[in-house]
Amino acid sequence: MKSKITMILFVLILGSSLTTALVTVDSFTREPIARNKAKKLQKGILSSLNIEYGEDDPNEIFSANVETITTPGDKPKKFYRSKTSGDIAFEISGTGVQGEINATIALSPDLGQIRGISIVGQKETPGLGSRIGEAEFLNKFKDKNITSGKDKNITSGIAIVASGKAAADNEIDGITGATLSCNALEELINSELKKYVVMFRESQ
Fold it and tell me: How many whole angstroms separate alpha carbon 181 and alpha carbon 101?
């Protein structure tokens, strides 16, 4: 009986100690993690807006060059406008092949063309799907048209096609060997564009 009580007390003390340790670690790491996440987002926004920045803290450059716009309502969304070009950027996220893809995308002031796109976070297969985050591929999105025909208010989106096959002004050459990740990125961009372009227009 005594040994059982001793065992129970040991388990309770151990559990309490582990809980205290986890809470302590969380309190020390939560703030740095939040700062790093905010820094990555700022760098993504600046890259999408084609604003140069150093590899250190981008906060000063961000504050000097970017205006933050928050939409009204119960579920506000943040947009970021370049103070010089007027281009509009925002954060997008969705499902990739191996996990969530987080990106930022910037559009022209009339919301008709892509100015830039940056992958902030992804879990695609290294050397294959992960190549969607390479600058060589992302630069292909610049100045691509996302509107349908003459109606500049209808967002038709982009199309990632087989490598070397891009012809239309909304088509981007895909990456050989990364078709599934390219398809996932195309679906993510188009679904988010249709949603957030309307949201931004309605907020103005």
Answer: 10
